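Recall the central idea of this unit: under ordinary conditions, the amino acid sequence of a chain determines the structure it adopts. In this exercise we apply that idea directly, starting from the sequence alone.
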Amino acid sequence: MAYSEEKHAFEQLTADMKSGDIPAVVILRGSEEYLIDFYAETLIDRFVSKECRMLDLTTFERDKADVQDIIGNLETLPFMSERKVVYLPEFFDDRGRMPKAIDRGTNDKKELAEQLEKIDPATTLLIITAANAEDYKAEKLVKDSELYKKVSKQGRKGLGRVYDFGPLSRKQLSGFIEKRFRAAGKSYRPGIVSMVIKETGYESRDNDYGLYELNNDLRKIIAYCGDAQEITPQDVSEVIGTSPEKNVFRMIDAMTMSRKDEAFRLLHYLLQDGTSEMSILAMITEQLEIMLTACEMKDEGKSLGEIQKTLSSGYLGKRRIAEYRTKKALESGSRLGMSNLRRALKTGYKTEENIKSGLMPGRLALEYFIGNM
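Accordingly, the structure predicted from this sequence is:
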């Protein structure tokens, strides 16, 4: 039967594992892919010995799933593990369809469904996961399949269990966030967790933001916090929804105010977040060009509006330059001074040449550039 009315699927599955009540077949499905993947791996770790994963775990790639191979593995006894586990990830896709090799053969689907009745829960576990159905038609296709019906049937005749992983409640979500902050050794004041939930928009039904995205943002917050023990509201607001470009602006601000440690921290954060060295350098040199042009125009007596209009006309790039960015360019450029701006821009061009020619590794070149600004 499907557990989704009283307890969340992850709570029910955890309780079932604790009591030893895991049937021969489980279907993990729902909108939270993170939890589906996590608990599929949790079940595998529970029943398969680490030393015998090669023998006692068989994972079928969707495009290579063959009924006879699946059945053959379901009939194989475990070597040294508690159970032989056969894992069929995304067996049902988002349109409700099984793998092509099985879906197009009526006999194959029937044979696989009938095989479920022969699985011994004492020795074997079949894990099936399903992608989140894209619409009602796809959902109906899954639930109307003979395999799904046999697993989800109520009472003693049911051959397995369906765990439906929907979105977490506010309480469950708070626990998810707090657990990861504590695991990283970070403290936080009341209100931080609620701020994270609000800023990420997890509870909104109008976006595709799920636990995979949330977990990634939590890692970013922890990384941004650095060696500081406490996560602050500023850490949260600086990270969530912040683009690499904005972090480059902050890095340049730090450089112009002689806060090299802050600049290096932001550089390492950007690199850790997956932004390439050349992308970072391109954003730095573009901002330096804007700063230099803005300061030159100011010296010529041009107004803020005129400067912004010129910068947005395609003089330097193809994008419109926002007013706040023009103001920041003037502010940072004035701190650095015209001569230092020109020198920094030349160094930026030289750094690009050094990276492309292989004279210096990208990371080292950027660190040298920042250190000598």
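The chain has three domains: 2-164, 170-239, 244-371.
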